[in-house]
Amino acid sequence: MSIASRLHRAGKKVASAVAATAVTATLMVVGAGTAEAANRDWLRPDATGTCEWDASGHGVQRCDVWSPAMNRTVPVLVQPSQRGGDAGFYLLDGMRADPHQTGWTMYSDAPATYADSNINLIMPIGGAGTFYSDWIAPGNFSSSDPQVIKWETFLTAELPGYLHQHFGVNPHRNSIAGLSMGGTAALNIAARHPGMYQQAMSFSGYLTTTAPGMQTLMRIALLETGSLNINSMYGAIVSPRRFQNDPYWNMEGLRGKDVYISAATGMWAGGDWNVPLWDRIVGWGLEWVARNTTVAWELKARAIGLNPTVDYPPTGVHNWGIWTDQLHKTKGRVLDVMNAW
């Protein structure tokens, strides 16, 4: 980052801090009832000073949250609840998560969808190819600049404390959803931390990652996404960690939770015809794999006494069209389960 860029950002932080202080003082004067109504009107503190208003609008703030585990700040978008509600709704990105912005605002309309809701929308930025897990070794092949990946620690042990302190989010009243890679992670994280989540949802997730051929597909995807080494995630191919990070073998913690899973067929329809041909072909293959692994997960879940809600649209390729549909379709479910209307 250039010196000019740093000065510009510092100036924005100072201006934001002044504005936040003024708004906070006003809220203290007018009383608690108005403060709840104005829950989205003031910027919270973050690791670099004060959060910034995000370009996506609808009261969304961009906050830099310090992660001791990864020794860096992680940008997180937060849309505070409209009326001071303490429930949180985490939205995780997919394999090609952008390092500067979340797909939930770039390609979908999550903030607008939840603009009238009394739930805190939480959208971490980054994590491409990581499956939002804790890796046992640096993710890249560089010895001079190792990439430490501890996303699960960040999401479950570091970020909740920040959100509780500055946004009033209850660490034990959360829903979590994700698309594709993020769907895999959402079920894994919720199952391993059952005290944090009442609901977990997967949209086109890969839910049997140790099935024959899946490790090879994941290895190729990680190399192509960010030159990431899958062995750094799990260790050797026979490591128990591969099964511990597979939703198919990691579902006991979801007992008593509201679980929703969806995947389409990959068949083209509607807006899919506007997608470039090669992307349609790849999208068909990826969604076909997601559908098959999701169905396999459902069958095992029902066999052991879980009762997930499923949605299997007859058409749709692996892209933001079907994921935005699922975001809209599940809104009422999220608000009902989390009592956040």
TrEMBL record:
Coiled coil: none annotated. The keyword Zinc-finger does not apply. Keywords: Hydrolase, Signal. Residues 1-37 form the signal peptide. It comes from the Bacteria. InterPro entries: AB_hydrolase_fold (IPR029058), Esterase-like (IPR000801), Mycobacterial_A85_antigen (IPR050583). GO terms for molecular function: hydrolase activity. PANTHER family: DIACYLGLYCEROL ACYLTRANSFERASE_MYCOLYLTRANSFERASE AG85A, ENTEROCHELIN ESTERASE-RELATED. This is Alpha/beta hydrolase family protein.
